[in-house]
Amino acid sequence: MKFDDEPTPGEGLPILPGHTSPGRFERILRAGKFAVTAEIAPPDSADPADVFARAALFDGYVDAINATDSSGANCHMSSMGICSLLTRKGYAMILQQSCRDRNRIAMQGDILGAAAMGVCNILCLSGDGVQSGDHPEAKPVFDMDSISALSMVRRMRDEQQFMSGRPISSPPRLFLGAAANPFAPPLDFRPHRMAKKIAAGAQFIQTQYCFDIERFRTFMAQVRDLGLLEKAYVLAGVGPLASAKAADWIRKNVAGVHIPDAVIDRLAGAQDQKQEGVDLCIDLIEQVREIEGVSGVHIMAYRMEDRIGEIVTRSNALDGREPWRPAL
Amino acid sequence: MKAVRLWSVRNARWLKKVYDGLEWILSLLNPILRRIGYDRLDKPFAAVEGVVKGFLFDSQSCGQCTLGETGMACPMNCPKTLRNGPCGGVRQNGGCEIKPEMTCVWVNAWEGSQQIGAEQTIQIIQAPVDNRLKGRSAWLRALRIKVGSAS
Ligand code: SF4
Fold first, then answer.
1. pTM of the model
2. ipTM score assigned to the predicted complex
3. Domain ranges (residues) in chain B
4. Which of A167, A268, A319, B20 is disulfide-compatible with A244, CB 3.0–4.6 A?
5. Number of helical H runs and strand E runs in chain A
């Protein structure tokens, strides 16, 4: 899908009335289309070709790509580097910015830099603890948290000011996002926490992996009752699991991922567990789509990025719509 | 100190009352305090405050207290020093992502704020810490903000 006013790659689209970014992702959501985003695997290399090859796996299947910020506190190519490379080709990027590694001075500088490179979307995260990654001896920064970071970016955009109050001559035109984990305690606080993120500036929400559909349904009903569905777009997090063993490992070792026993049993009972993981992901997409207020899916296919095409096609998540892709 | 801290959260309701009373007394004393000079009082105040709040709440003395808005749980005990709510990594049993043996500070904060009927104030967006205020008296600062003699 190309817009009539599609710019040359790397430049923004005209900002439509009521929009805050010159980006394709905001347009898709505001037009009421069911959106698909996916997480790109950051390479452990300095070779741009690695980034282009990984992005190419998503061509024609996703509306925007999340570039993670050393998630799990493991070192990889930076979100900023990946976004800079890919915006140059015209991809719609979601820059993930965690508070773990940078203080407010670095973060504000990066926000201006990212916007200048054509990034239209930022996802503000608190970030995983350094203890979970490959550099547990590092100094955790956490000068800000995800919510104060959101309000900081919003102020830069809407009031054209740094936190210090110093003016910004040309503000970053961004569509702001936040994460939500409906599955972590305290469960009845989670919808309120999402409300707080929206009050701080979040316009879209990407959730943690949804494997427990019942729980997610309850969460979405609470979110609806708080009147949040009119204020932000919710993309449900989904992803294929490689095997029952992998799933069990993830739920024991990856912070914040909740996988019910039924899911593990389903994988364990399958002949081809990897294929079953893909099928399960497709089923989950179909189920979350039925829930009121779900505006899209965010696919995190860790080490299975090559299966995203199959997942999107078979689930018909795009309703036959063809997302933008780079010209061949 | 962990036991006291949990006790404080469970007794958040009347502790908050005591706390509000203290603020009231301080504002009554304000004319005297102002005459002595806030800056001169900061050190002794901070010392007393550190002991009291350290004992009751495991306070980390950030100098810009949120206890009344965070269910009487000091958010600076969160290993990520999150001041606006729990991260996504809280374990299913309520344990902290980073220190599993500790209950997530925000699980306590949520419990405490329900006790003091502060489900609204926990929604107040807390600005990031002003690192210059660490170790200074948050009581005096709150008082000065209240009487309008500080930013
Ligand atoms: S689990 Fe709770 S205490 Fe631990 S880092 Fe996350 S928010 Fe902080």
1. 0.92
2. 0.90
3. 2-146
4. A268
5. 11, 8
